[in-house]
Amino acid sequence: MPGSDGYEAVRERSSCAWAPRSQSRPDGLLGCAGWDGSVRWRNGERLERLFEERCDRMRARGTEDRLAVDADDVALTYPQLDERANRLARFLMAEGVRPGDRIGLLLDEAVDAYVGMLAVLKAHAAYVPLDVGFPSDRLSYIVSDASVRMVLSLSRLSERTRCLSAQPLYLDRVRERVAEQSPERPGAPAAGEPPDDLCYIIYTSGSTGRPKGVAVGHPAVCNFVRVASEVYGITCDDRVYQGMTIAFDFSVEEIWVPWMAGATVVPRPEGPSLLGAELDAFLRERRVSALCCVPTLLATLDENASELRFLLVSGEPCPQDLVTRWHRTGRRFLNVYGPTEATVTATWSPLAPDRPVTIGVPLPTYSVAVLDPERNTPVPPGTMGEIAIGGIGLADGYLNRPEVTEGAFIPDFLGVPGNPSGKIYRTGDLGRINAHGEVEHHGRIDTQVKIRGYRVELTEIESVLLRIPGIAQAVVSDREITPGTVELCAYYTTCAGMTVDPERAVAHLRERLPGYMVPGYLEHLTSIPMLPSGKADRRRLPPPTGRRLTAQGDGTAPHTTTERMLAELLAAVLQVERVSVDSHFFADLGANSLLMARFNAAVRNRHDLPDVSMRDVYLHPTVRRLATALTEAPPPAQAALDRVPEQPAAPAVGRLGYALCAALQFLAFLAYVCFASVALDAGTSWLVRGQGWLDVYERAVALGALALIGASLFPIAVKWMLIGRWKPRRIRLWSVAYVRFWCVKTLLVANPLARLTVGTPMYTLYLRALGAKIGPRTVIFTRWVPICTDLLTIGADTVIRKESYLTGYRARDGAIETGPVTIGSGAFVGEHSTLDIGVHLGDAAQLGHASALHEDQSIPAGQRWHGSPGRPAPAECEYLAVPPARCGRLRRVSYTLAMLLALTATVGAAEVAVAALLEARPALVHTLTGAGGPGSWTYYADGLEIAAATVLGLALLGATLVPALSRVLSRPLRPNTVYPLYGIRFTLQRAVARLTSTRFTIALFGDSSAIVHYLKALGYRLAPVEQTGSNFGTMLKHEVPTLSRVGTGTMVSDGLSMANAEYSSTSFRTAPAAIGNHNYLGNNIVYPAGGRTGDNCLLATKVMIPVSGPVRENTGLLGSPPIEIPRSVERDRRFDHLTTGSGLRRRLAAKNRHNAGTMALFLTVRCLYVYGLLLIAMFPLAGDGGLYWLETIGTALLELAFTVGFFVSTERAVQGFRALRPRFCSIYERPFWRHERYWKVPSILYLAIFNGTPVKPLIWRLLGVRMGHRVFDDGCRILERTLTQVGDGCALNAGSILQAHSLEEGVFKSDRITIGDGCTIGTSAFVHYGVVIDDHARIEADSFLMKGEHVPAHARWRGNPAVEPTTEAARRERP
């Protein structure tokens, strides 16, 4: 390692030669290009020795007359300053100062401070700089915390020292005694051996209200001043202004770096800090050529009159306009960055107007990485994360704060070169590494300001203010003006002799900033309050005294009656005196969707105004634009279309008819169970007579084949016997005809072969056998089996994607209505789409994902439509984009036969074996387990062992084997490669999709921190993860996990489907589906490969993801087709402290503990459930009479009753036997954690057994739903049962959802849902929280009724988001 002379030679030979370039390692660690890994410090070297070596070199060269300090009345050469320090050092030693002592410096004269600093170091002590402006309490705390032995001060400051526990030494009283000391250096023998390397302790602000002492050692500071003198370009001819108090480490840059270069330090005069014109005059008068300061200070100076050669800014973000103002040819202008914990400065960058401001690249000997804020892993370049620093420049830690030190100074897991501490410092600053290898600084992680839900960087607003002519300084702060109302307040000072017109300033801001960033107040101050560090003191900014700046357009009175009425209604909803007709609802007025839903309801209550929908609000977000749109809109659709049902309501069924229907359904169910029990009894009797396991397996395979074939043919036979051919008709609910309909529907839905063969030729054969007219080579992936099959016509080569509804019936107005669904050849129906009855798709027509066709809608041949209700899509939309492949009849037949054999040998045999063991033959259980019967403890113990092994084994296999199999099976599937259907790769893809979408495992890990690890194990690309404990819900689907990417900081609600496989009628291909960073996804979203959304998007519930057009970023999307909405959501500021810093870490840890308990409870509940089923199955009901089929019937009925009772009791217990109540809380608060437990631990899957029966509303009542009489529920999911009310005679169609909550970026909200009598909720419709639907209203299929909406009585709403159709809209939808 080179010695000090070598360092000096390098510095003088190559000053300014270091280029601002970086070099990056594969793991993301950034270093300085050209650095050889050596540090600029020798073992045992101390800071004062560097100064002494500089003095010696100057003597040797004959330049000892150069000034080290040039103060007002004192000018000292380097040797003179050295001698003064030597004398004081000897005096201190004589006064008892020992090596390792900590000596405070409380001085307001610069020369005394410099001499004292050097003297303390020469005595081998450490100095603790103090500022005379510190409050007494802070001074007392620092002296005590740092164990300061002596404080060097002046007698005029004796009032400041009286409260200190350390001994004061007033330098002005001992000057004569000090002057008597020898001017020779004390040297090591006289001073004694130092006990450690501590150089100084500087205190920084602490989050607890108490400052933290940062202990900096000689190796770190010696290395820094050497490196800085090499890089910065300060020369021996420079005169460097020193204006910062020595209590801040920025002063090290002002003092020690110039001394290393042999320059002259020019301290500011005594008194208050200099700003503006006073500082300008001082710099010119004292011929200062180099200035180091904060940008706020530089902004006060006149750039045109300055003669500065060197500028260095640090401590605050530097606005771009400041660079433009101060950049000159020949002037070196640097921006540096570094926390006190990394010894002053760690990165540097030259500034120029033609390049963006960054904090640059690491200094030589420093390294920088950007880490995941939640874990010790680097993030990829370009990804936002926490800036971390490594190298010899790291401080030793925080004095007397081991826990805080451990949290900030983490172990060096990256192997940073030249890093003797073995630590990496997490700065708490947000940043990223850009494409040029430079570090961008994006503010503090834990102090981000949020206004109306938007993240606001105050420096951006300040930068715009500073561009206004005449403004010298600008500071922006957030203030709570009234309880719950937070506003941005801007403060500014003006240049000498100039004024600023506030109205023009506001206009300037509005032209350059979004509305939510325009301050509500603009205050002129004579001076900005400053901290001793030179930064603006935001805490001392006065409260605003002027009037609030009106929103853009305020003062513009309404011009029309419609504008006036709308403005009055909106002001009442927002609880303000008035609103401008030109104010943006969201950006200017701070409204949110819930408030605007209330506004819409208020408008609908006015009969002299047209109705307003949320789509209208988002498309026309000012009163003026909305009034114009309403005036130009067509009139509401005719009453026959909107407020009166097309068909008269079916006559209501009385109590007797209702009870008769229930009895007939029960008898039908009992008959089916009896038939199955007799068949099962006969089959298992034959099965157990097998000799050896091989013979038993062969019999099981044969019996499984018969069972599958029988279970498949039986529904077909029943359909033809009870219905014949389906025809368009109305079937009165709860009638005998309805019972026939229900029997056929239930058998078709329960058919195991149908569920297992979805997406294969066998499935289409099955539907043809039921009467459907389906052309060759058509592929149907939806698991929602068409019911009225004779009314279904699908042409050749058509593709129907999964989760689509084309059932051919609907329930409304007391009846089941059946009707045709016609799809031409070569057509396409997207995922999560809904086809109502009476719709038609022409040949080669396409309907996009998350879309719907309502009754009488027709897509002409060759056209592409999307949306709900469907409408023509842009020309570039292409949903059937996979090229064809060779897939002939031989391949289809071979695949079908192979699949039948495989299902028979596996699924069929397994189902038979399970049924035989657990239901038909308790004696077999006795033989296998040795149980002694219900009177023996082993009977119960064996049952518990089997139950626990089953559930825990399933969990273990799901967590380990499924991810392993998923990755192995996915490996042959190359992205964007076209493969034919019904081959090996098709089989692998379908197997992966089924295997990895298993509901049990995702439900177990969902709504917890574990889900991200499970998904990464499956192959999801999630890194780096910003853990929230609720990154994903409990319902998630995908086609190929390894091609799924979800960006950093994204939260996903239940129901996401990653559609990363595309199909034609002959081929398929897999393709990546990537969701951007910092997105929020609502419920039930299909995200296709090639989705056109990027970072920072709010994707609302049931939104249709665009597949064409520009990539949407920094916005929100709502509806189908999507419209852009504000990205933000209104949030309560009281939750912000829970989402950052240590508060987040504590809350997340507590949430993880709670979620771990929830997962354990989830498994325990399922163990107990399986245990109960086993006990019932093992119980010998029939004795030895041989009527085991009666035992099977009894077992089935008991298990059904046990299932209902068990999960009802479980749900009530999880709720604490209390009803839910509306909530508004953070996801990091316990009420939300309990709600997650409520979602996860109970189950409502068993309710599907009771779809379409009078029993299901009874169970809903047991679960807490305020359910009316004779409600028809064909498969609705009610999530918050005790918050939901459903009136008499309602129809809840298949796939509908009543969800009384939302999660909006970490804030949980829930409220009640109220549905009146006789209402209809259409197939796959979604009703959000806070909704009121009045009597006999109708929500059509696939509609999304947004939160807070109020649907009037007899109204008909449809669409996503739902609105009342207009005549013109109805005409467009029916070409």
TrEMBL record:
Lineage top rank: taxon: Bacteria
Every Carrier domain range: 557-634
UniProt-annotated stretches for the region Disordered: 532-558
Transmembrane parts of this sequence: 656-680, 700-722, 895-918, 946-965, 1156-1181, 1187-1208
This protein's name: Amino acid adenylation domain-containing protein
Protein's organism: Streptomyces rugosispiralis
Keyword annotations from UniProtKB, A to Z: Membrane, Transmembrane, Transmembrane helix
